Fold each of these.
Amino acid sequence: MMTKDQYIESLRKLHLNLYSFGEKVENPVDNAIIRPSLNSFAATYELAEDPQYEDLMTATSNLTGKKINRFTHLHQSTDDLIKKVKMQRLLGQKTAACFQRCVGMDASNAVYSTTYETDEACGTHYFDNFVKFWTDVQENDWAVDGAMTDVKGDRSLSPSKQADPDLFLHVVERTADGVYVTGAKAHQTGYINSHYVLVMPTISMREGDEDYAISFACPTDAEGITLILGRQSCDTRKTEEYNDIDVGNKVYGGHEVLVIFDHVFIPNEMIFLNGEVQFAGMMVERFAGYHRQSYGGCKVGVGDVLIGATALAGDMAGSAKASHVKDKLIEMTHLNETLYCCGIACSSQGTKTKSGNYLIDLLLANVCKQNVTRFPYEIARLAQDLAGGLMVTQPSEADYRNPATHDYIEKYLKGVASVPTEDRMRVLRLIENMTMGTAAVGYLPESMHGAGSPQAQRIMIARQSNLEMKKELAKKIARIK
Amino acid sequence: MLRCTVKFCGGCNPRYDRGAAYQAVRSSLSDVAQFSYPEDGTHYDALLIIRGCTGCPYLYEDIDADRRFLLVSADEIPSVTEQIRLLA
């Protein structure tokens, strides 16, 4: 396994074609806007080195028998699925941000089982391709980004019917050695911090969409790939002279990029689906299921930090003993632990796929994610309720450091006498960061849309609700023949 | 000296500081026991399993140890320490 330092150094060797704020970024590793996201990703390496977290952070590979980082593991039991969720909660607690490595883990497990079943039905050799690639990933502890979401253009039209054929990533040229692909993947969390990208189709495909039913892996800095960094609210606070208190979370963060593939060559041995339209849906459904399970861990860990910050704000303001404050903290905890219950439940009810790895219970995973589209918003609302208006009206750190205004701020922003004013400012900025600043991108809209928007889960819930059985139950009780 | 090893649960939601608990046990027993992290093929007199909560079921059967001691809360540090001391 790589150490944290080895991982960071390995990223310096990438030659990403990355743009941000209208300029080419030559050194993403030390870029003030991007670095916090790298630190979050690096925590997945750092904690794996610590005996206190080893039991969650590492696993034994079914491919090599060696000890590996769990983020590269192909789940071999329901216990593995449960440990995955616990690991994600742990990382959320340590970073209070999206640590970005889950998407590659979820993609790998979906592609592993789908390629097996595709080969079985179609006589292809995608499973062998994937096993070779993933063995290399495990051996080198590579960071892998999973890329599913196409930009999609006109949502009423299928991929092959779009006015611009590139609005879904597709094969534009075929040679004896491989294929060339063109298109774009949106919202790519953690791409800049990854060595490889594992691409999957974004929706179920039908006849005529063969060029769009493509799955492959390639280096993140492959020729023809251009990246454009997404903006986050309050992101430029990280570049200000005083960038400690006001950023809320100085060390950790997340990022998303728009990834453009412009005639990128993919060799045959890195292709995992190529025209078998009937298996695109399976890959999408399984990836989405795993990723919806993930949110029952990562967002819970971030929620733990937000609940803690809110409780601290109450302590510092002297309001901790008020009954409504206690009750709201209980409500926040109840909501957060409900999400965790869903993550654990869909894991414990997992089943073995034909390939041997384990898949979560898809109905429960979708219920999990449906709750995630709602509860973090309510937790954030309660956090803002208890934090008070000072969370968004307090002066800047620059004013706090300015001798002309420091003493006034120190005096008038004081809460409980024994608590330094600076500490109170820090915890309020943390709540701001998590509920409306850079970290809110990960905690709120990502909870809404990441791993699929709410309606996507409702479609899956409808498909698996077993409604006819429920009707029969009612008929029997009501004595209807 | 007793040859002891320690195994932590993964630490997803610990109710106490497991690292500090380990240091407390270890230092209290420094006159009778030597602790290290588990290594394959090594036999230990005692395995101290430090769980952050009551929800962790693992006994780490792959670790070769004569006795297993469970620590589930900070309150148990004195009693677990004494139980290990009795082996010496």
Amino acid sequence: MSPVSLLLLIPFLGALAILLTPSKYAAAWRGIALGATGLAVMVSLFIYFGFQPGGAGFQMTGKVDWNASIGLAYHVGVDGLNVGLLLVTALVGFAAVGVSCDIERQPKMFYTLLLIMVGGALGSFASLDLFFLYFFNELALVPTFLMIGIWGRGEQKNYAAFQITLYLSLGALVALAGLICLYALSGANTLDVVILAAWLQEHPLSDSSQTLIFGLLLFGFGTLVGLFPFHSWAPLGYGVAPTATAMMHAGILKKIGLFALLRAAFPLLPVGVAHWTGVLAILCLGNLLYCGWVAMKQRDLNLLFGNSSLAHMGFVFLGLASVSVIGITGAVVIMVAHALLAALEFALSGYLYRQTGTLDLGKLGGALRQMPFIGATLVAALLAGCGVPGFANFAGEITVMFGVWPSFPWQVVAAAWGGLIIGGVYMLRAIRQVAHGEVSPAMAGATDANGVSRTPYLVLLLALLYFGLAPGSLVERIKPSVERIVKLAKSASPASPVSEPSAVATASAPAH
Amino acid sequence: MNSSLLVIEFLVALLGLGVLLSDLWITTAAGRRSLAYVAAAGLLLIFTLHAGAFAPADGTAFGGMFVVDALANFFKSLFLVAAMAVLLISTRFAERLNGYGEFVALVLFGLVGMLLAASANDFVLMFVALELITVTFYILVSFQRNRLSSIEAGVKYLIFGALAAAFMVFGITLIFGAANSTNFYEIAAKQGELIKSPVFLIGLLLTFVGLGFKISAFPFQMWTPDVYQGAPAPVTAFLATGSKAAGFVLVLRLNYGVVPDLALGWTHLLLGFALATTLYGSFCALAQRSVKRLMGYSSITNAGYLLIGIAAANSTGASAVAFFLVSYVFTTLLVFAVITVVTAEGESDDVSAFSGLGQRSPFLAAGMTLGLVSLAGVPPLAGFFGKFWLFKSAALRVGDDRWFLVAILVACVAVVMSLYYYFGIVRAMYWPRHAVEPAPIEPHLPIRLAMVTCIAAVLILGVFPGGLVGVAQQAVAGLAPSPGMPAVHAVTPVAAH
């Protein structure tokens, strides 16, 4: 069995084991969840370091003909795009279980849902068949509703549970419509990216179909990422979600949309790429500048983190829009880095909330005095968020800017502004308000994390530093795969043959 | 006459008569309930015979009126399973229904009607089969004679049913006038000529009115929510599964087998009805508090999805409709099993009756959640693949007709709306607004059995849909000759008639 299949299997087996463990052994539930995610971390480390950098092909593949008659197969494997993402997914999953020690109500269901979420996320990153990518993505999304509803906090949790579920489902379904059109119109009777890429080289889709499908995929998956103007679900959803859910969502699930664009839309639909990247380069300014500006105005730490994570997504979209090797490589590095950063941010804010009962910036203060470890980690995370060198985010952001400069210089200026100036303002202000100053009354009773309970934060922080200080290990893995994608994405010849009598006009691509 | 082809129908009818007779000698409630078990076991036996060695060979009987082919067999299995589950579920209602023995017999007679509908190859037999179904349901819907809403539902169903039947008879007369025959094969052989005749077209349109009533397609859906709400929950379950599927098997046979050329010409008409049905059901369901009414609107929405597959008029569409119906039947039975238990506990079917079900009975709540999530079309459950396959049939047409893209996007919006109203129930079950008295509910064994079967089916069909898709493709293969292509030519008449 391919180690990738093993990696996918672990969380689901863990979920099953928890389900089958009777309430008499309630203490075992958390242990099983920790064990399963810990094991997943080990397997993903094995995959990451066992991966041979340099090759553009897929490694450690596993394939099971699921339904030959329908042309869909369970096909998993790793390449540069997903090898890093799989590792951070396992890390974040482990950390998310680690910080969930405060769950008292229905822990059995909580850990089951959390493991399903982790398994779904791993599955979507590992899948080479787009049907399964979607399938696992939905599997990861649906537990959100129950998790926010049952374990969420605050008055607005009911509204937020519905908002995030409906918004993300609409995005996912629009993307599904695009995938189904691809499946039906390509004539290859498969959604396997390896076969499909080869098939579409020989039998390209008509220009109008490509434009249409790319549009559906861009806005469908874009909604899952929070592409401006389809982003409003994110900050509130993260604000009310239980800590582990917010970590998985902001850190991992959001990246699935970006990953799917790189896996499906860019290499398979070159004409669509040429048509839509200009639009993408403008929309990403909304993330970079508008969401950053909104983040600056926030008085609540979670809403600040939610909006800043949207702003960071702007960098990734900008990198994608450049369709250059350097730009997209940088974008993938940011995806990996931001997964760790967002998870760390929400883990810390969850800890602060548990200790102080508030996340109002005005009521917090003196975290460094009261809780040296948590305070210091928070400062590190906030500095990473405004792009300080040494953290992985800096490596990604600077690479994106280099890569994008030739095609969209103005956007780079805006990105530098948004990321470095606006980001600096709100992140540094948050440091001043939360970490420095006198110990506020709310903070006075807080106790620092100690001993083993520091592990989740340390794991995320160390990974962030590792990829920041040695980005080469990531880049050497990512680059060959990105080169392949860029080559395919730029392969649109001006007069590509029309393979079907299509009457779908470009203008009919829905922009909603 | 080749009457051995009707062995399944004969056996079920005999079973029904047997139940009716033995009801005369049984006096205790427990005895009546055991009648349902015997009937369900009998159906299981018939199902095994049907699936196994005693499966009648393909052929026609009654001068071509009655046909046994892959499509008929596919749907007959489905009807048998649905009736079995309905009987098991209904045992929860045994004390409340006066004359429970008759109830069991009527379910069996309704089943005979459905089996005949699956095999109908003639407009006259089609009408007789549909009437057999409808008339049984007149009685079944108003079976709780002490409940006003049940009687009201029965009267509504009677009036609408009679109206639809009248339209259909009128339509069939016109078809007979134009075609000089009511046999499907004979009409299919000359459909190219016939569809130029306005009389024939009007006749067909009126026939579709009658079928539209059965499948609750807009604008013939008015009865659905009222009847679903008023009828006893097991009857609603049978109405939503068996009766609807019987309507759809006839729509499939007519559209794909009898007048395929017309089906292509009427694409936009069908698509319009499909979208109107989908949206009507979705919008009305949004504000529903009564779960049975909500399921009525959800049934309308699902009819809309299915009509998209019919409008696509390709073999993928036909197999998607067949697959979707199977997944829909299992899912709906699962949901109604829970509704039956909950409404039997507390009389009301308001969403608040489901409050805190997650604590009162984790099993029922988990079953209901799985059912609703599958209805909404979320992987890895059966409902997801049903929709995926349906949307694919529509996507195959996007290249030549952009309205199919509109249809897919409208259906996507409807799916999101359905998540809203289904998840409203999930929310009530797991985090109720008000604290609830945790009175545990313990569903009894037959219901558990029915639910476990449905849950297994929903999961298996969701994770491994390939097997059933293959069967469904074979079932509809006789209708549309070349896979992936729009159905252009009808089946060639079988020599038997």
